[in-house]
């Protein structure tokens, strides 16, 4: 027969252990939910971008959106370079401008956080691109604020906003991706492509019914880092295991061997319609995406420090 006092003592110890485990679990959950990303501030950026109205490349409104983005970056102490160029389009030459924010780090290799900030032109309705350009640009701006205060990766971060992602008429290899193709071309011409260690593109990332699939043309290890980070934070249902492929601003960099990932939700009901308006966005979902990218940065840095995905080392691409 067992000693009742001993049994009671064991029971008490087990009870204390159970409570401790519960407290540890709760603290861990709370810690994973903590994020420096401000949902309200992110939404304000999106609202400001939309407030300029339709802003296709070459328009006065697009110039104002670009000025706003550049001003916000500068206000956070981020160095800004404006990459002006003329793009040959189906309707003639159009002035375009990429906005390039630079936040210096100590480690070799650059991590790029990118978005396009133009809205597609439609002659028959008013298109402001709240989700298609607005949400991703808002998140990258909020990440610039957070990282200017504390950069957990230690790497130099570039915040790049591409002009002319949208087709001027109908999407082709030539009528699309004007800004990213120009940015990648200039880097290559100056021998600087090898500086980029990881390229993270956001697009269509703010809708209320958000669901991401893995983009098939993205670099597997970089996709894994983003998706695994999302799962650790409890967002696995938003970052699913399905796969799709798309042409987007990551492609010109992928073609030069840069590790890339495109975080994009192509199942957006209001894509390229007049109803892609600010009321379709979720500030909480934008905060979530920003948090995942922010939390993934140290993991990206660890991978770069311990693998061949380093500056000057490029993946082999099949011909």
Strand content: 15-25%
Shape-level CATH architecture: 3-Layer(aba) Sandwich
Order of SSEs:
HHHEEEHEHEEHEHEH
**CATH class type:** Alpha Beta
With strands numbered from the N-terminus, the spatial order across the biggest sheet is 1-2-4-3-5-8
Radius of gyration: 22 Å
Structural class: alpha/beta
Instruction: Say how many strands there are.
Output: 8
* CATH topology tier name: Aminopeptidase
Helix content: 40-55%
Mean of the pLDDT scores? 89
Sketch the major β-sheet: 6 strands, mixed
Helices, by number, come to 8
CATH superfamily: Zn peptidases
- Taken together, the total number of domains comes to 1
Low-confidence stretches: 1-33, 308-319
Quote the distance from N terminus to C terminus.
Answer: 76 Å
Backbone shape: globular
How would you sum up this structure, described in words?
With 319 residues, the protein is of the alpha/beta class. The chain has one domain: Zn peptidases (Aminopeptidase, 3-Layer(aba) Sandwich), CATH 3.40.630. It is built from eight helices and eight strands, in the order αααβββαβαββαβαβα. The protein has helices at residues 4-33, 39-51, 60-75, 130-149, 178-189, 220-232, 251-254, 283-306, and strands at 79-89, 92-103, 107-116, 155-162, 196-203, 212-215, 239-244, 260-264. The strands form two sheets. The chain has a six-stranded mixed beta sheet with strand order 1-2-4-3-5-8, sandwiched between helices. Strands 6-7 form a two-stranded parallel ribbon. The longest helix is centred in the N-terminal third of the chain and has 30 residues, at 4-33. The protein starts with a helix and ends in a 13-residue tail after the last helix.
């Amino acid at each position: 027969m067992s000693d009742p006092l001993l049994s009671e003592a064991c029971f008490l110890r087990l009870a204390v252990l159970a409570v401790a485990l519960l407290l540890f679990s709760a603290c861990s959950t709370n810690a994973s939910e903590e994020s420096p990303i401000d949902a309200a501030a992110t939404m304000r950026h999106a609202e400001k971008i939309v407030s300029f109205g339709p802003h296709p490349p070459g328009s006065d409104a697009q110039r104002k959106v670009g000025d706003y983005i550049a001003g916000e970056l500068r206000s956070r102490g981020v160095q800004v370079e404006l990459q002006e160029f003329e793009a040959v389009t189906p309707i003639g030459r159009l002035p375009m401008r990429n906005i390039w924010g630079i936040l210096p780090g100590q480690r070799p290799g650059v991590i790029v956080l990118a978005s396009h900030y133009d809205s597609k032109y439609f002659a028959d309705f008013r298109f402001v691109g709240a989700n298609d350009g607005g949400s991703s640009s808002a998140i990258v701006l909020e990440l610039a604020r957070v990282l200017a205060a504390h950069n957990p990766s230690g790497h130099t971060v570039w915040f790049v906003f591409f002009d002319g992602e949208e087709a001027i008429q109908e999407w082709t290899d030539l009528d699309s991706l004007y800004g990213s193709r120009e940015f990648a071309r200039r880097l290559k011409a100056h021998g600087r492509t090898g500086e980029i260690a990881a390229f993270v593109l956001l697009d269509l990332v703010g809708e209320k019914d958000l669901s991401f699939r893995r983009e098939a043309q993205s670099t597997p290890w970089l996709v894994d880092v983003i998706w695994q980070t999302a799962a650790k934070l409890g967002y696995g249902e938003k970052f699913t295991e399905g796969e799709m492929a798309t042409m987007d601003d990551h492609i010109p960099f992928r073609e030069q061997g840069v590790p890339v990932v495109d975080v994009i939700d192509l199942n957006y009901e209001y894509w390229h319609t007049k109803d892609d308006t600010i009321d379709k966005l979720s500030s909480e979902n934008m905060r979530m995406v920003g948090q995942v990218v922010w939390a993934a940065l140290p993991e990206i840095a660890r991978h770069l420090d311990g693998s061949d995905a380093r500056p000057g080392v490029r993946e082999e691409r099949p011909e």
